[in-house]
Design goal:
There is one protein chain. The chain is of the alpha/beta class. The chain has 8 helices and 14 strands. The strands form 2 sheets. The protein has a 10-stranded mixed sheet with strand order 1-6-5-2-9-10-11-12-13-14, with helices on both faces. The chain is globular and about 50 Å long. One of its GO terms (biological process) is D-ribose catabolic process.
């Protein structure tokens, strides 16, 4: 395995430990049913993975951002690394795995702009506790931002380790999976959508602080509610990731809850107006 050259950090980083994948889109009038073949449009390649998406969103929002993860040492992986660098993301702890493909998400988008997604994790499942050990310099001014697309044992270890070092931990509990109570207690904030929140409640999970994104109804964090912005929606794939990354960036910069939610809402609204989870700014 090899990584990019080493570097050092300043103060108040958003550190994203997470997945990075290429997204392969095909648009169609309607999704196929079981056993059915439908004709679609051209295959379009974009960048994705919840970790990569959130790192780009945080960097675009102005935060010093470090991405920790694994890509294949292949054309998609090297292109993705260069993209992260182009957005100002620190990739000194990004590993390019030889002989392992970059993770890939296959996304089917229908005329109503609803998506169906299947993910082949590829190099993402090579993230291990050695990557967590490389985060020994996390401090109280840093935010560790995580999701649930990495091996579960790595996610749990990283959360407990970061909290023990005094860093703030934000967990986007997606894709949803139940976690032990001590791991939830170590998170300063859990971000879920409405469905994931229902699943948490159904499993009897409690967390110290929960922010719920509500799609077209905006978002709610405790007694603070922020409405969604009304825009023409092209693709919702990266909406939640744009929200999480921008929220973390605002919080690490000293914003209050409402201010951070407003910034996150704007980031999400800008993202859904274009195809792909990391659309380039207009």
């Amino acid at each position: 395995m090899r990584t990019t050259s080493a570097g050092h950090h300043g103060r108040g980083r958003v550190v994203v430990l997470g997945s990075a994948s290429q997204d392969l889109y095909v648009e169609m009038e309607r999704h196929p049913t079981t056993g059915e073949t439908v004709m679609g449009g051209d295959l379009v390649q974009r960048f994705g993975g919840k970790g990569g998406n959130q790192a780009v969103a945080a960097a675009r929002a102005g935060a010093e951002t470090l991405f920790v993860g694994h890509l294949g040492d292949d054309a998609p992986g090297r292109t993705y690394r260069d993209r992260l660098l182009g957005h100002g993301v620190d990739v000194t702890r990004l590993v390019l795995e030889p002989d392992v493909p970059t993770g890939t998400a296959l996304i089917m988008l229908n005329a109503a702009r609803d998506n169906m997604i299947v993910v082949a994790p590829g190099a993402n499942h090579h993230v291990s506790e050695s990557d967590v050990a490389a985060l020994a310099d996390l401090g109280s001014e840093d935010i560790l931002l995580m999701q649930m697309e990495l091996p579960l044992d790595v996610t749990q270890t990283a959360i407990l380790d970061a909290a023990g070092r005094g860093a703030r931990v934000i967990l986007n509990l997606a894709p949803y999976a139940p976690l032990p109570q001590d791991v939830l207690d170590a998170c300063h904030l859990i971000i879920v959508n409405e469905k994931e929140h229902e699943m948490m409640q159904g499993d009897g999970l409690n967390a110290p602080d929960v922010l719920v994104t509500l799609g077209t109804d905006g978002s709610r964090w405790g007694d603070i509610a922020v409405p969604a912005q009304r825009v023409d929606v092209v693709d919702t794939t990266g909406a939640g990731d744009a929200y999480c990354g921008a929220l973390a960036a605002a919080l690490v910069g000293g914003a209050g809850r409402r201010e951070a939610m407003v910034a996150a809402t704007s980031s999400s609204a800008a993202t859904v107006q274009h195809l792909g989870a990391q659309p380039d700014p207009a």
